[in-house]
Write a structure and sequence with these properties.
Blueprint lengths: L7 H23 L6 H8 L3 H13 L3 E3 L15 E3 L3 E9 L3 E8 L4 E8 L7 H21 L2 E10 L2 E2 L5 E4 L4 E4 L1 H5 L15 E5 H10 L9 E6 L3 E7 L2 E2 L31 H4 L1 H7 L11 H11 L3 H25 L3 E6 L5 H15 L9 E4 L6 H16 L1 H5 L4
Parallel strand pairs: 3-6, 6-10, 11-14, 14-15
Antiparallel strand pairs: 1-2, 3-4, 4-5, 7-8, 8-9, 11-12, 12-13
Helix pairs in contact: 1-3, 2-3, 6-12, 8-10, 9-10, 10-11
Bound molecules: zinc ion.
Length: 412
């Protein structure tokens, strides 16, 4: 508890104002069409005068702006609707993965305003050096954001591994990271974003979780419950149940890549055998297709597979079919357990979905008890390969929308 003793009346007034700001801004964010002040009064139950005062605060703080008035038949001045501002605060999304770094900036309305993907094999690179490269890219993003009238209000970093509450990466097997104190390493650099009360300067989370959140909050809204699978060198899943990410007891749920699909099969980096990753991870597919990954620039591995499959190359088609079958076995187990009806293939799986979906669906049909009368949809992510970074930036933006007072009360 804070030791300061604010006058009770002032505290109440402060918190009431904060509640009203969040209530009105939340309505504007959720609306299908730009609501007028009158619409907002009806929707929130607040008086017109209160709504007008709150909207003035939000306009002054660059959290909302007035939409162009819609043409209206008949006499009278058309009411101007309110939309989330395209200048003002924005979220910084970062991702470190096995063979790329991604940085993106997302504005309040969810638009991606800056994105950089830096391709490099990061396995031989020390964590501190990989993070230093990311800081450089983030600095360029901040300059570009400022040029567009955007202020970075917070950052979230996606990593392909197990992250604890303090932001330490306990284990990212495919990157070779173990017990990496990411916040401490980043604190050696200048801050990535401005300081904004109520918005964490940096959140570190698993990339599959952040990609699933990105999918959950994409427009138009999809289902409230689904399984999102990120297929890179490793395979991670985000489990979304009733509109919320299911994190598990320690935040480490979703390690679908280490579900055994052949219990006595190939050894895996995790120490187990026959894990899904050994049959449906990007390296496994590329090897099965007869491609030598080391000879391919990292960014072209997936594109090359898709190109070969498109052209009817038998080895590529067989590799994708076998990977899809292994993936389908694992997915069927999850669907049986959790009763889900939607599976989203994200990350490197998205461009390969035309060839992965049929064998995944075949396994679901053969293995899921309820599939006969309750079909399961398997589809590619709409967010593209940068889903985790976009989801990371989006998580910052949603924090600002749910607690706008922090941004409005910031110094300077
Ligand atoms: Zn494993």
């Amino acid at each position: 508890m804070s030791p300061t003793h604010a006058p009770v009346g002032a505290a109440r007034q402060g918190s009431l104002r904060e509640l009203n700001l969040a209530l009105v801004l939340g309505r504007i964010a959720a609306a299908d069409r730009p609501p007028s002040r009158a619409d907002l009064a009806t929707a929130t139950g607040l008086t017109r005068a209160t709504v007008s005062a709150v909207v003035e605060d939000l306009l002054a703080g660059q959290l909302v702006s007035e939409a162009d008035p819609a043409p209206r038949a008949g006499a009278g001045r058309p009411a101007r609707g309110l939309v989330l501002a395209d200048q003002g605060p924005a979220g910084l999304g970062l991702e470190v993965n096995v063979d790329y770094l991604t940085v993106c900036v997302v504005d309040l309305a969810g638009q991606v305003r800056h994105r950089t993907v830096h391709r490099a094999d990061l396995r031989p690179v020390a964590p501190a050096d990989a993070l230093a490269r990311l800081v450089d890219l983030a600095g360029q993003a901040r300059v570009d954001a400022a040029r567009q009238g955007l202020t970075l209000a917070g950052a979230a970093l996606a990593v392909p591994g197990l992250v604890d509450d303090s932001g330490q990466v306990r284990l990212a097997p495919n990157l070779g990271w173990q017990d990496v104190p990411v916040p401490e390493l980043l604190s050696a650099h200048p801050p990535l974003t401005d300081r904004v009360p109520d918005v964490p300067a940096l959140v570190v989370d698993n990339e599959a979780n952040l990609a699933a959140l990105g999918e959950l909050h994409s427009r138009p809204p999809g289902p409230a419950s689904f399984l999102h699978i990120s297929g890179e060198v490793g395979i991670g899943a985000g489990i979304v149940l009733d509109g919320a990410l299911f994190r598990g007891v320690r935040g480490w749920s979703g390690e679908i890549g280490h579900l055994p699909v052949h219990p006595q099969g190939r050894p895996c980096r995790c120490g187990g055998r026959g894990c899904l990753e050994q049959y449906a991870g990007q390296e496994a597919i590329v090897a099965a297709a007869g491609l030598v990954r080391a000879e391919l620039p990292a960014d072209t591995a997936t594109a090359r597979l898709a190109e070969l499959a498109e052209g009817g190359d038998p080895a590529a088609l067989r590799a994708l079919h076998d990977a899809g079958t292994a993936l389908g076995v694992a997915v069927a187990g999850v669907v049986n357990l959790l009763d889900l009806d939607t599976v989203v293939l994200g990350g490197g799986y998205a461009p390969l979905a035309p060839w992965l979906c049929p064998p995944v669906l075949a396994e679901i049909k053969a293995r899921v008890l309820t599939a006969a009368w309750s079909p399961v949809t398997v589809r590619p992510s709409t967010l593209g390969p940068e889903a985790a970074a976009v989801g990371a930036a989006g998580s910052v933006v949603r924090r600002i929308v749910s607690r706008p007072a922090g941004w409005l009360n910031r110094a300077g």
